[in-house]
Protein: Winged helix-turn-helix transcriptional regulator
Amino acid sequence: MERNLLCPRFEKAVEILSKRWTSLIVFQLLSGPQRFINIDQALPNLSGKVLSERLKELEHEGIVKRVVFPESPVRIEYSLTDKGQALAPIFGEITKWSQEWLPVQE
Amino acid sequence: MERNLLCPRFEKAVEILSKRWTSLIVFQLLSGPQRFINIDQALPNLSGKVLSERLKELEHEGIVKRVVFPESPVRIEYSLTDKGQALAPIFGEITKWSQEWLPVQE
Structure:
């Protein structure tokens, strides 16, 4: 019987985006470059340890970049690369779907 | 400091879609109603037990429906509801992103 196999690139994209917290971190960064503390505060249930791991993974995937500003004290900002910014339409569609189909939560 | 909190409906959507295998099952069902065995064969690394759990969860979320055809032997098909079908644009955007930004895998 013919198998309807998934495209490996599609599977890889789903794997990246499905990792716990990853999508919410990318979504948070869509609003612009931010310091670690800002992302941490926007996602109250996410521990600093996991945020740090996820940011490293996203850097490794080329989705997030970490920029060090040589000020005193040093300022470090995280932002999306072009590859990361290109995820915006996915989040736009998730937002639309959630507003149309999920109940308003109290 | 003002917190840039996420919309709970967006978070809920990400939670649903991020659950391991869920997105791939929904994607598979976008090609039309299917029997359990067909979904199972299309996702070779997914066990029947987990597929069965995920289909129940997706039914519970109103994303998948299970239709029993009273034939002999009985035929059971899984398909997307309108709410499930409305996820198509999200998967369209994931496909586009993966094709533009992820390397072709051998």
Notes: The longest helix of chain B spans residues 88-101. Chain B touches chain A at residues 1, 3-14, 17-20, 23-24, 27-28, 31, 38, 41-43, 83, 86-87, 89-90, 92-105 (CB under 8 Å). Chain B has one domain: 20-98. The first strand of chain B starts at residue 64 and ends at 69.
